[in-house]
Design brief:
By secondary structure, this protein is an alpha/beta fold. Helices cover 40% and strands 17% of the residues. Strands 4-12-11-10-7-5-6 form a seven-stranded mixed beta sheet, with helices on both faces. A four-stranded mixed beta sheet has the order 1-2-3-15. Strands 13-14-17-16 form a four-stranded antiparallel beta sheet, with helices on one face.
Length: 402
């Protein structure tokens, strides 16, 4: 029988043995089912964080569990020195339902963005010469913690202490077309954009801005990269967030929800860029292994099931309406923003207190930028669960905001 420890015991042991790189809440989640999780003290929570948009089918989803179990019985890992059937199947599904022609698999969103940056620079040098290497991203963006992805991240608080950063990165302002056009030029290899900035405060890019990005990239022979690590894989109510705008990128990065909880990342590339990488140019030991891609196939099959994405849109309408009502009732200045089931509600500097009160009452949410409550429920969340979350959120508002 496995040892049992309380939250307090796990926290104490963790502080001794685990590097202090996270501002963790003092609880340890030990099991989950559907939209619910339990901590080591057996307290139950309605989870509207879902592992930061990872567990988009909730916990213990039968299809994902069955796929992982079958892979564990067959073959957990095989090197990319050989063909991996699950990987091929997942790549076929991703390309069949997107703009892309080919897929490179890795283990995380940061790795996917790192691959995108490398591919963009290699493609630019091959076709235009050594001086074409600049990467344009956006202020308040977040693209990961590896050194190049961190440099592409337009938030200095994440970069402090890691200088000198790689050169060649510029930052435009979200939804400011003039700012974007000022940054992009003959030396630009790529422009990387999150269709919805998650860590930056749930800030959507307008269709007009994305179209302008497409046009300026075409003008200067740069690749347009969409980072859909957080907002992709059904989160917005379409399989990919770019579908709302009608603007297709040249590259797209995925991770988080793609594996339903199993680590996996992917770089999707259109035909004109896909051939840039050749054997030896880039690799990942664990990327796209049999276990991870078995989970990925189960996830995308569920999301492509008739009615799934319509359910996301319907639940989004319920959650957005409830949040709008609370914003008006409690005289909050900011409006609800986002798409599908990635929604943000600005509440000022009391955001962390609201998160704490919600946790104590059994609702898990989080706060980005210290002021914006972010809601990332499972995509198969029920209307009743959303209504319960809104009730618990209002109880927190009554204690903190009134």
């Amino acid at each position: 029988m496995a040892e049992h420890f309380t939250n307090e015991e796990i926290v104490a042991r963790g502080k001794q043995a685990v590097m202090n790189t996270y501002g963790r809440l003092p609880l340890a989640l030990v099991r989950g089912e559907g939209s619910w999780v339990w901590d080591a003290d057996e307290k139950q929570y309605l989870d509207f964080v879902t592992g930061l948009a990872v567990n988009s089918l909730g916990y213990s989803h039968p299809a994902v569990t069955a796929a992982i179990t079958q892979a564990a019985h067959q073959i957990v890992h095989a090197s990319n020195l050989y063909w991996i059937p699950n990987q091929v199947r997942l790549a076929e599904k991703l390309t069949a339902h997107s703009f892309a022609a080919k897929v490179f698999f890795c283990n995380s969103g940061a790795e996917a963005n790192e691959a995108a940056i490398k591919l963009a620079r290699k493609q630019a040098k091959q076709n235009y010469g050594e001086d074409k290497y600049r990467i344009v991203s956006l202020s308040h963006s977040f693209h990961g913690r590896t050194l190049a992805a961190l440099t592409a991240t337009g938030q200095t608080k994440y970069q402090a202490g890691y200088e000198p950063l790689p050169e060649g990165f510029l930052y435009a302002q979200l939804n400011d077309i003039a700012s974007l056009e000022q940054c992009v030029g003959e030396q630009t290899a790529a422009v990387i954009i999150e269709p919805i900035q998650g860590e930056g405060g749930v800030n959507p890019a307008s269709p007009e801005f994305l179209q302008a990005a497409r046009e300026v990239c075409d003008r200067y022979g740069a690749l347009l990269v969409f980072d859909e690590v957080q907002c992709g894989m059904g989160r917005t109510g379409k399989l990919f967030a770019y579908e709302w705008s009608g603007v297709e990128p040249d590259l797209m990065t995925l991770a988080k929800a793609l594996g339903g909880g199993v680590p996996i990342g992917a770089l999707l590339a259109a035909e004109k860029a896909a051939s840039t990488f050749q054997p030896g140019d880039h690799a990942s030991t664990f990327g796209g292994n049999p276990l991870a891609t078995a989970a990925g196939n189960a996830v995308i099959d569920e999301m492509l099931r008739p009615g799934f994405l319509r359910h996301v849109q319907e639940m989004s309408a319920v959650l957005r309406a409830g949040l709008d009502d609370l914003a008006k009732k409690y005289f909050l200045d900011g409006r609800v923003r986002g798409e599908g089931l990635i929604l943000g509600l600005p509440v000022g500097d009391k955001g962390p207190q609201v998160v704490q009160e919600c946790q104590e009452s059994g609702l898990l949410i989080n706060c980005v930028g210290g002021q914006v409550l972010r809601f990332l429920p499972p995509l198969n969340v029920s209307k009743q669960e959303i209504q319960l979350a809104l009730t618990l959120l209002e109880q927190a508002f009554l204690k903190v905001i009134v």
